[in-house]
Amino acid sequence: MNFSQLRDQRANGFRRLRFEPALEAHYRKARDEGIRSRARPVSASALTLFLVYTLLDSLMLPPAIARDTIAVRLMVTCPVIIGVWWLSYRDIRNDHFVKIYALAYLVGGLSVVGIIGLARLENHPLPYEGILLMLMFGYFVMGIPFRTVSGASLLVIVAYLWVEHATGSGAHQLMINGFFIGTANIIGMVGSWLSEHRQRAHFLDRQMLNASKQQAEQENHRKTRLITVASHDLRQPLNVISLILENLTADGLPVEQQSLVSRLKSSVTHFNNLLASVLDISRIQEGMISPEPTRLCTWQVIRQVSETFSEQVQRPGAQLVIHKPATGSGVFADPQLLHRVLQNLVTNALEHSDATRIDLRAHQDNGKLCFEVQDDGRGIDDGSLEQIFTPFFRNSQRQRSCPGLGLGLAIVHELTGMMEGHCNVSSSPGQGACFRVFLPATPAPQTTESVSGAAVPPSAHSPSLVVVEDHDEARHWTCETLASWGYSVRGVASAEQAITRWGASSNAILVSDVHLPEMSGDALYDRLFARKSVRGGILMTADTTIPQGYDSERRLWVLHKPLIAMRLRAAITQLDRLAD
């Protein structure tokens, strides 16, 4: 049953101790499993009780009567109890076991009636407390369903009254005993009804909780799927637009149109940053981000951030100055998350501070590696400092001139915390701002690879490039961009075409989309590299859950879409240089 059906069941109530058929079957299954588990300690306590009564019979009753009562307890009642305990461990259906369990209760109650009857035949007044004990045992201890235990208890009471009458009890005494036994039975029935009603209410609460949890998990799965699809489907056209703009610039447009192209590229970059922020905050809130920290070279981290903004800082405006940290300086962090943190801080300084200079540096600080992004801009007022890392917070004075969502710094705060670090900011109005990110320090890894340095123009010995992309427009503009840089480029639409057209010992570099119809770009690269059809590779993906970076053992880069032209070109240059 779904949550709405369970809610309707609760609203309708269950005074008759019955649910809707589908839920009733589920309840009985769970109840029967519980009764089976409960039967084991109940059997142990009942067996102990009857053995104690056996001892009392031998001490307190006349030998002739004790012989008969002890025989009933040891030959009838105790074997039945032992049988129930034994069956609770056997492989029989739970509903069948519950019936046997209830029958055992009835047999136990009738055996007590029989013992009272034997004593009456010998003219020995045996009290009916044993009957009361059996009634309470059935109603409150054994956990038998209300209707079943009420019917069994009624049979025991009728049998007791018949025995009393058959053994010569007077009408007055019979009425007194019947009144007390009947009163006890009514109290037991009320208690049993309340107990089962409470159990059903708890069961219904658990089912509603489970249904709510399942509904929430399904909703989270849909959100996760939406975020993943949105990330891929929105980044893909952005990649095409970025490649078209790159070609427009490379084609040598008239001077008066260069500013228009520059503005377009700036708008695309801004839109990509907004999209990344929305997707990042959604992934954080849905718990989709799981840091994978590793040892990183601090200098390479800083250089990669600088390369990301290489085109932006070439335009009129702020200057990004990077400072080389101490030799051997390293940081223990997730490379993708750390890059995103520093990228957001630099973007914030470029777009929102009115700065003319931005400094990016790193240094050791009490066992932590401190990254600093400092600008000489307008600064932050005291009221805004307290809320600067709050999601969707934006300075009201700058909302119109600096469009944005107010998520960049919130993402910095969240991602830094995920990597067991912290961040802060110091600023004064008119004196600029300095953002600091503290993460665990570690010695830098001894072998590191990164895209760095200026891209080298292709030579006659440069490799040819094989572009594998099933999206026609993306493939066309990727090939056009690479060709404009002077490379020999061939493009194909499928992994099968790439496998059949390029043989062994090819002086080629693979540039492939990760998601291809026949096989993944990763599998395609492994196959071509194994037979020496390519000397290195670059995988492009719009799925940001796939880590971006370089695998030196495989000579393979993974770059996120939309591609940063300078980063792509530097990656090709590096693969070309390593193969020499």
TrEMBL record:
CDD domains: HisKA, REC. GO terms for molecular function: kinase activity. The chain crosses the membrane at residues 46-64, 70-88, 100-119, 131-162, 174-194. Keywords: Kinase, Membrane, Phosphoprotein, Transferase, Transmembrane, Transmembrane helix, Two-component regulatory system. Its EC number is 2.7.13.3. The keyword Metal-binding does not apply. It catalyses: ATP + protein L-histidine = ADP + protein N-phospho-L-histidine. Coiled coil: none annotated. It is an enzyme of class 2 (transferase). The keyword Transferase applies. The modification 4-aspartylphosphate is found at residue 513. Residues 229-443 form the Histidine kinase domain. PANTHER family: HISTIDINE KINASE 1, TWO-COMPONENT HISTIDINE KINASE. This is histidine kinase.
